[in-house]
Structures are given as structure tokens and as C-alpha cells.
Design goal:
- The chain is mainly β.
- It has helices at 92-97, 105-114, 131-138, and strands spanning 2-4, 13-24, 34-45, 51-61, 64-74, 79-91, 115-129, 148-159, 168-178, 182-191, 199-207.
- The protein is globular.
């Protein structure tokens, strides 16, 4: 990689790194590793070491396509944490690995426990946390609805909504999370049953 030294005391430090043929181990989310063919990151560090930016981090693999951008610290344009995550055509369990654990932690933990399979066609995470909101997020405290928006479209998913309930199979639908609430929309799916007849779900929703 490269580090570019500032030409004056007011300019930021800049960096660029890349690599290939690596793997990400996620024992809490899946048994196998996530294979990464190529990754790259570039950004800058404030002249006073008061902020760090990454624009963007790109990660590619056989089943991985992720772009991450953001800033942390006292940036000239924003103080706090600004973060975007974009993913397309990835296994749902893999996408959860790139959902920061402190962002809507209750919803993320629910999906880690309850979502056993599925394919994500699109995942979009956008947060703008000022210092107070960032502290609240780490403490699992309420944050303003407009400070965060997470959207995901999922197909062929397996989900157990709660203990004791039948598993939901072959689900297609979406998840939407704000700082205020989280909702699951099921467009279609099947309810697991010991009976030979299939129980078909259509146009259902519930809050997490």
C-alpha cells in the first residue's frame, strides 16, 4: 500500500491499500469462511489526527460484493460517525457480518439468532451519528429515527420468528430498520408443517 505525506500542516494524510486471496472467519455467524478475492481501501487521516475517512472500502469475492464508506471523528463536514454500507447478491448470513454490531444491535442480534439462510439482492445501511447518538448506539439506547436507515431485500430465506413457532421457509420480502423501529415484510413464503399440505404465506408483516 501507499501513504502520502501532507505537503503542509493543514493537509490530511492520505493512504491507499489493497490485497487479494484472503478469507474472513466468522465462527459466530457461519461455519465456513467468507472467501475474498480482492479488497481495497483508501482515505485520509486529519492533519490533527482528529478524523479518519475511508472512501471507499471495496470487498469482492465469489459470493461477496461490498462497498463501505464513511468518516469517524471531527471531520470538517461532520462530527461523529457517518457510514454507508452497500451489498448486492450475497448470502444473508454473510451480509450480517458487515452490519456493525453496535448499529441497531437488537435487530441485528435477532436476525443472527433467527435467520438461518437466504439470499440478499440488495442491502443498504446509512447512518449519521453525532457524538451523543454514537454513544447511545453503543449503549443500546434510543436514537432519533432519522439518524439511521437500513434496508434489505431477501429471497429464499429461512426464519424462525420466535421460540416455539414453526419455521418460515422460502421467504421473499424485505427488512427496514430506523432509529425508531424495525419491520419485516413477507411477500411470500411457506410455513413449516408436519402435514402434507403446504401452508402458504402472502403479504404478511411483523415488527421486531
Amino acid at each position: 500500500g501507499d501513504i502520502f505525506f501532507p505537503r503542509s500542516a493543514q493537509e490530511p494524510w492520505r493512504y491507499a491499500f489493497k490485497g487479494n486471496q484472503s478469507a474472513l472467519s466468522l465462527t459466530k455467524l457461519k461455519e465456513s469462511e467468507i472467501r475474498i478475492d480482492d479488497w481495497s481501501i483508501q482515505g485520509e487521516l486529519g492533519a490533527r489526527f482528529d478524523y479518519l475517512s475511508f472512501q471507499p472500502i471495496q470487498i469482492k469475492g465469489p459470493e461477496t460484493a461490498i462497498r463501505i464508506g464513511g468518516t469517524l471523528g471531527h471531520h470538517p463536514d461532520f462530527e461523529g460517525l457517518s457510514l454507508t454500507v452497500r451489498a448486492t447478491h450475497m448470502p444473508a448470513r454473510d451480509v450480517l457480518a458487515f452490519w456493525p454490531s453496535f448499529v441497531a444491535s437488537g435487530t441485528r442480534n435477532y436476525l443472527v439468532r433467527r435467520l438461518s439462510a437466504g439470499q440478499v439482492s440488495a442491502f443498504d445501511l446509512d447512518i449519521q451519528f453525532d457524538p451523543a447518538q454514537l454513544k447511545a448506539a453503543f449503549n443500546s439506547e434510543p436514537i432519533p429515527a432519522e439518524a439511521m436507515l437500513i434496508k434489505a431485500s431477501v429471497s429464499d430465506a429461512q426464519l424462525q420468528a420466535d421460540e416455539g413457532l414453526p419455521q418460515l421457509n422460502r421467504l421473499s420480502g424485505s427488512v427496514r430498520v430506523t432509529g425508531k423501529d424495525a419491520k419485516v415484510q413477507i411477500d411470500k413464503g411457506e410455513l413449516a408443517s408436519k402435514r402434507p399440505q403446504k401452508l402458504i404465506l402472502s403479504d404478511a408483516s411483523y415488527a421486531i
